[in-house]
Amino acid sequence: MKMFSIREENLKVFLRELSLKHVLIAPFKRDGYFEFDVLRNPDDFNVNYTNTRLSPKRFFMPQRQLVFKHYPRKGFTEELKENSSVVLFGIRPCDASALSVLDNVLLNPPHKDALYENRRKNAIVVSLSCTKPMTECFCNVFETGPIRGTGEDLTFTHTSKGFVVEARTQKGIAVIGEFGELFREADGEMLNEYNKLIREVLDEMGSRLKVDKTRLIGIEKEAGEEFFQLNAQRCIECSLCSFACPLCYCFETEDYWEKDSYVRFRGWDTCISPLFTKMASGLDPRVTKADRLCHRFCHKLSRIPLTFNAYGCVGCGRCVSLCPAGIDIREVLRKWG
């Protein structure tokens, strides 16, 4: 894979040019926190941003989304179609890796998610390596970062001499070709710094948490009730862990009549909710919080790997930092990993 570079002063030129041709989404600071939104001024982009509270999955799976409108009198159904070309710039490798897992889950036939597929194919994803991972991050466990992920088209890594840029897909190569005057082949000095940076960051993260992932597959058989009951007593069922997670994809649908049409919306939901698995008959297979908490961890660490050959966690640490009850998935990894 050929490695390119771009000078720091050319980054804003690159962002400005991108914004003229695409909807440019990037992280910037608002009300004291970083969040992803449409970037209209490249000067607002901060290369040293800390992790956002919400992941960028909302640009592929919106919190509330129109599915279709059906007009019974006219006899036709209008489905949602979005054709905007989007560049998601500067997401962390863990969030990029989350997209590749969602691709496995939502784009495999015979039950493709057409809404997700439409947004995904119209997006260019550019990740920005983590050179100073936050204390709650553990992406190294699932090999989803911190330098590169598995779902981006381009990876930018900040060095003292600018950015090392790795084209990961044909889309990424096309972007490099389109803005060729801003990029050049990375020289040996820059690549030496880049390789040294990789070693230092991986060594630092490796000292935090080490897990034998092969053991996690058996968590459903080995996990004792006591651990989940103790944590369930602390859980307040706020759903922050699911809504902040870049990989949770549970949803609910809502149908209603609007003027002359039937309308269907879908929106985020979570398996941690007490109503999520309750059926019309009143039966609920996961009636207690301990049951739901156990399901959440087993699903992420055992069932998704067995079904899709990828873990349902990328180690972004959002659930760790945001949980008001202090429930920490790393405790599960230390206990059964």
Architecture overview:
This protein has 337 residues and is α+β, with helices and mostly antiparallel strands. The protein folds into 2 domains: 3-206, no CATH class; 213-336, no CATH class. 37% of the residues lie in helices and 21% in strands. The chain contains 13 helices and 12 strands. It has helices at 8-21, 93-106, 114-121, 139-142, 170-178, 188-206, 213-216, 219-222, 225-234, 240-244, 289-308, 318-322, 329-336, and strands spanning 3-6, 23-30, 33-38, 64-71, 76-79, 86-91, 123-128, 154-159, 162-167, 184-185, 251-258, 261-268. The strands form 2 sheets. The protein has an 8-stranded mixed β-sheet with strand order 3-2-6-7-8-9-1-10. Helix 4 (139-142) links the parallel strand 7 (123-128) and strand 8 (154-159). The longest helix is centred in the C-terminal third of the chain and has 20 residues, at 289-308. The protein is globular, with a radius of gyration of 21 Å. The model has no long low-confidence stretch (mean pLDDT 90).
Summarize the structure.
The chain has 337 residues and is an alpha+beta fold.
